[in-house]
Every structure is written in structure tokens, then in C-alpha cells.
């Protein structure tokens, strides 16, 4: 089996630590690290660490794009950059040591011109038939629209299972097209259905509404530290996250998707694959910055669940 990920708006994540964030003070930063970032890129990094064949398609431009290429080469993640004129963005992630709080600052991304959007449509339409899973993960870049995102999903060749992890109107258009699997959190699910989801029964009902109208075959609802709610036409299963020492939550959701898709490619049933995805997400929070997970941690957590 083979997996391709799509990252339309990648980034370099610059992570730093400070003792305490105070106004009007010059703050000394330590533990300064740069990591490749963006939803689909992180998913591909996780899948690669699990020794599963994967290829990352991503938007590449400017000096940050060249740096991102080098990061992926260094991690031996097979990838295919889609060239654009403007530069890939850089985000800032600040860990406040005193409180343990994480502050995330997202910078403006590049604008995709019409010709570059068409290049993406062509790239997606030519995904090889041998690909089993195509994972769209992350935000949309400037210049694109949710309608274009829907067109991108419609361009996917028949027979490939599409997994989507995005939000707001892009996610809504994905459901209009109809995909295999989505992974919203509770807030994103509330935005989709237009109401508060205050208890477990309400979450189940909202997930089933999406499935019943053909938006997705599988809904994996992220419950944060509570794990996930797996919903299909056959019913529901809540999978709790194993307790671990928290170092960084950045990329944990991407790790869940990566572990899930890797396990599906091994032939695991959906329930077990989702359980492995939760274990992989838990393994990711055990590492600093966006280092993501170690294979041995994910496997051990899965065994203990």
C-alpha cells in the first residue's frame, strides 16, 4: 500500500523557550530549534518514522522552501515540492518554562497565483492509481478559496481514499464532495453543525449526521486529553489517550493521523488503526517542539492500551 500527503500551506516552525513572558521586557530565548511544519508534512514525517512508504506533496517557494527541502531530505522523507513564486512562511512557538504554557504565533503565508493553483489541480489529478490513501492536512494559503479546495478534492482519481484534516469552510466543502475520513475537534464540529455539542450524545448525533448525508464514511472526533470518538455507520467507539508526560502538544493531531493511516496500510481494522493513531499522538506529546514521535514509544503505548 502507498500513501501521499498534501500540504498546501507548509511552514518552518521555530521553537524557543523563555523563563516567563513579561510585557516591556527583553526576553532571553533558549532551546532554539527549527522544524519542518504544516499538517501534511508532519503526517508524512510520522508515517516515515513508522517505516511505511509515503510521499509528501507540498507548496515550495523562497529561502524557507529551500530550507524545508533540506529538512525533509535530512529526515529521509520522500517528497515532491510544488514550486511557487512567494516564500513558505515561518511560525513561532514559544514555551514559557515557568507555567508550561505554549504560545503559538502564525505568520502570513504565501499567496498562490492562479497558475500555481492550476499546477496543484494537475498534480492531484495525476496521483498514481497505486496510491491507497491521500491525506489533505493543514490550512489553505492566501489567494485560494474553499471552493478551490473542493475542486482539488474532486480532482483526486477514483479509487483513492481521501482523508481530510482541516477546518472551517475548507472542511465544509470537503464534506460536500464526500471523503473517506475527517478528524475535527469539538469546536470544529460545532462550527460544522451550527450548534453547541455539550455532551457525548450530542457529539455522536453530530458525527452521524455527517455520515448519513455522505460527507464522510468515518468521523474521528478529537477530544484532546480524552482521546477520540470513532464514528462510522456501524456505531461509535471512544478511545482514551494513554497518560504520558507532556512536553509539547504541537503536531500531536498530525501524529494521530499519521499513526492511523500507517496502521490502515498494515491492514489493521479501523478500530485498531484508530487506537494506534491515538498511541502515536500520545507519543508525540512526549517529545519537545515538533520532533513528533518515536516509533518505539508509539508501539509501547499501543501495547499498553
TrEMBL record:
<dbReference type="GO" id="GO:0005829">
    <property type="term" value="C:cytosol"/>
</dbReference>
<dbReference type="InterPro" id="IPR029056">
    <property type="entry name" value="Ribokinase-like"/>
</dbReference>
<keyword id="KW-0547">Nucleotide-binding</keyword>
<keyword id="KW-0067">ATP-binding</keyword>
<comment type="similarity">
    <text>Belongs to the carbohydrate kinase PfkB family.</text>
</comment>
<dbReference type="Pfam" id="PF00294">
    <property type="entry name" value="PfkB"/>
</dbReference>
<dbReference type="GO" id="GO:0005524">
    <property type="term" value="F:ATP binding"/>
</dbReference>
<protein>
    <recommendedName>
        <fullName>Phosphofructokinase</fullName>
    </recommendedName>
</protein>
<keyword id="KW-0808">Transferase</keyword>
<dbReference type="GO" id="GO:0003872">
    <property type="term" value="F:6-phosphofructokinase activity"/>
</dbReference>
<keyword id="KW-0418">Kinase</keyword>
<dbReference type="InterPro" id="IPR017583">
    <property type="entry name" value="Tagatose/fructose_Pkinase"/>
</dbReference>
<dbReference type="InterPro" id="IPR011611">
    <property type="entry name" value="PfkB_dom"/>
</dbReference>
<feature type="domain" description="Carbohydrate kinase PfkB">
    <location>
        <begin position="8"/>
        <end position="293"/>
    </location>
</feature>
Amino acid at each position: 500500500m502507498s500513501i501521499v500527503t498534501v500540504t498546501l500551506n507548509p511552514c518552518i516552525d521555530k521553537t524557543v523557550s523563555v523563563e516567563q513572558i513579561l510585557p516591556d521586557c527583553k526576553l532571553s530565548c533558549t532551546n532554539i530549534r527549527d522544524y519542518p511544519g504544516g499538517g501534511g508534512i508532519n503526517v508524512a514525517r510520522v508515517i516515515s518514522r513508522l517505516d511505511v512508504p509515503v510521499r509528501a506533496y507540498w507548496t515550495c517557494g523562497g529561502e524557507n522552501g529551500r530550507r524545508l527541502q533540506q529538512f525533509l531530505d535530512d529526515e529521509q522523507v520522500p517528497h515532491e515540492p510544488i514550486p511557487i513564486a512567494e516564500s513558505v512562511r515561518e511560525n513561532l512557538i514559544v514555551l514559557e518554562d515557568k507555567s508550561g504554557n505554549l504560545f503559538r504565533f502564525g505568520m502570513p503565508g504565501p499567496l498562490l497565483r492562479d497558475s500555481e493553483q492550476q499546477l496543484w489541480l494537475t498534480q492531484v489529478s495525476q496521483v498514481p492509481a497505486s496510491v491507497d490513501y491521500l491525506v489533505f492536512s493543514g490550512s489553505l494559503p492566501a489567494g485560494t478559496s474553499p471552493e478551490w479546495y473542493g475542486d482539488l478534492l474532486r480532482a483526486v482519481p477514483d479509487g483513492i481514499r481521501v482523508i481530510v484534516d482541516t477546518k472551517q469552510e475548507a472542511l465544509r466543502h470537503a464534506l460536500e464532495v464526500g471523503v473517506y475520513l475527517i478528524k475535527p475537534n469539538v469546536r470544529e464540529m460545532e462550527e460544522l453543525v451550527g450548534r453547541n455539542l455539550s455532551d457525548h450524545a450530542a457529539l455522536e448525533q453530530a458525527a452521524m449526521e455527517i455520515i448519513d448525508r455522505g460527507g464522510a464514511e468515518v468521523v474521528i472526533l478529537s477530544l484532546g486529553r480524552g482521546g477520540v470518538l470513532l464514528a462510522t455507520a456501524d456505531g461509535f467507539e471512544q478511545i482514551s489517550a494513554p497518560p504520558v508526560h507532556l512536553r509539547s502538544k504541537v503536531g500531536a493531531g498530525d501524529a494521530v493521523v499519521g499513526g492511523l493511516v500507517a496502521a490502515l496500510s498494515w491492514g489493521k481494522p479501523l478500530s485498531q488503526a484508530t487506537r494506534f493513531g491515538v498511541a502515536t499522538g500520545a507519543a508525540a506529546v512526549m517529545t519537545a517542539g515538533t520532533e513528533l514521535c518515536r516509533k518505539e514509544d508509539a508501539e509501547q503505548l499501543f501495547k499498553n492500551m
